[in-house]
Design a protein that fits this description.
The structure is a homotrimer of 137-residue chains.
Chain A lengths: L1 E8 L5 E4 L1 H5 L8 E8 L4 E7 L3 H14 L16 H11 L2 E7 L2 E2 L5 E7 L7 E9 L1
């Protein structure tokens, strides 16, 4: 069984956003066993799996990574698209744009505390395109 | 062919631990060609692929990332679960919780120097749940 | 449908190199729907997806990560293989060695601005081995 769906989501403000429900509602009929890939077609945003309960976790992610990859980093030459552009590219590859999660007993087998984050690194990122692909039996 | 197995491993001390053998012993019958996904159901630990021989590599990983994501980072607000909690969430997403490795000629095609790391970021992380999924022919 | 191909590429100079065309030319016959995995069998280089147009992005990636993971980081003990070895291992796991990209309508569904980077972290990395695996229907 193969299933594929394209969704468009956002725009999101700069920061880390829980999108678990947005993904799961596209996955109502799943194989018993398999894998799901969630792929973001962008280079200044990312997907991640992290804590799904306390919003301060997502707040601290934003604070930490804005400090780790500063907009005024000396040496950046790719600045024509704005101060937030090059840091966004770097953060996009630190997190990655592609998740693979197992399907167990017809369900996406996230752990109890795992949620799916849309990580928006631009101040005005616009809509974000995601392709969901399921392989299984 | 689809194969899936859940394992529970640990507890591990804070640091980077080679678990290649623990994973491979679950994979004795493999398809000729395919992919294996190894998925950790947690948000304060991670999976990674790195050097499998010299333990100083894993020691240096711990040293470096404890400095990169300090427990006393100014600005962390999610501190209720301990000083090592928020740094663990961040490190979990820098490394990721999901590996995909090809299967070639019935074997997991890790490179000569590649091993699988269980990255434990908590001081008392407890047991860790891993789901292994094989797709192939 | 399963398809698998091993390629050997490089050597590359230290830095970030667009290899999209090298990968795509191995993928001329694709299933209508599926996934492709691109896997690098090394621990001091990486694969990433990022901006495919402006070479200054790739230049800034090199500058930033050489600063983030310095060769003279105090505390590194794994130094026998050269000052650039331990930083390369760390950068290899920050980026990862494995990409999963969906196949949509017989094409690798990279976004408009997404390209595939070979991230070479060693000064003399030599040839790099990549395994490409396609699953689909």
């Amino acid at each position: 069984m193969i299933f594929q769906k394209r969704i468009s989501t956002g725009p999101y403000s700069e920061g880390f956003h829980l999108i678990t429900d947005i993904i799961l509602r596209e996955l109502k009929v799943l194989p018993e066993t398999g894998l799901v890939n969630i792929f973001l077609q962008h280079t200044s945003a990312a997907l991640a799996i992290n804590e799904n309960a306390d919003p301060t976790v997502r707040y601290d992610f934003k604070t930490f990574f804005k400090k780790l990859v500063p907009e005024n980093f000396p040496g950046f030459t790719h600045t024509i698209e704005g101060n937030d552009d090059m840091p966004s590219h770097i953060k996009s590859s630190i997190f990655g744009q592609s998740l693979v999660i197992p399907i167990v007993n017809h369900r996406v087998a996230l752990g109890t505390w795992q949620g799916i984050y849309l990580c928006e690194f631009r101040r005005n990122g616009g809509k974000r395109e995601i392709i969901i692909t399921v392989l299984g039996e």
